[in-house]
Amino acid sequence: MKTNRVITAYSLIMMLFLLGPLLAFLPISFSSASFLSYPLPGYSLQWYEKVLQPTPWMFALRNSLIVGSLSTALATVLGTAAAFGLTRKTFRGSSLVLALIVSPMIVPVVVTAVGTYFMFAKFGLVATFSGLVIAHTVLGVPFVVITVSSTLQTFDNRLLQAACGLGASPIHAFFTIVLPIIANGVIAGAIFAFVTSFDDVVVAIFIGGPQQKTLPRQMFEGIKDNIDPSILAMSAILLLVTILLMVFLSLLRRR
Questions:
Q1: Any bridge partners for residue 74, and if so which?
Q2: Are 56 and 247 in contact (CB under 8 A)?
Q3: Among candidates 249, 80, 252, 101, which has minimal Cα distance to 178?
Q4: DSSP 147-167
Q5: Which of 28, 23, 53, 52 is nearest to 41 (CA)?
């Protein structure tokens, strides 16, 4: 009993240590001052009104949502297909293929961004939405492969064999038998892929141009010289979205 109390107290202290800095900026985002200051002279929603203006915040948010949605869709399709193929049959070199697929998670993102920039420059994909979507797809595929592969570990292949034995084509059997069973893993992988794309700033700096400026890149540029309090307002909104995503993932895990 005493050990459990110690573990609980330690966990609460660590949560406070990790979440404390995130919660510290919330009151400042409601400041009525024209610059970053503490203690607060008063409370106002002026910074939230500023981030809701068409430019620059909503423009960057729209780009992030477009790039994130497209790259998530591609990463989910490619990652699910790769995970299904790698778990169904083990062939010579399968470990190497898996290592190559998950390498974007291991290689420093700066190295990935520089290599992607030099390769995309040869094909004219730099400063284009297509190039940014492809780059973010590469970053998101490993998360889909890992989550879907772990879900497929508990899948009974006899169900797929029975469906094919009854006359169903492999594609029809996959969409009617396999996909509904592994749907939670696919959804979780898609969420991780979207968060990876939405949170990226390094690849966006190298690949994106002025018209492809994403929200993290806009926030990064906003703190180079001085900290605009509107960044704190946008950070508070992103924190709320992150909490909602974590709650959704928790519900999926329970299911």
A1: none
A2: no
A3: 80
A4: HHHHHHTT--HHHHHHHHHTT
A5: 28
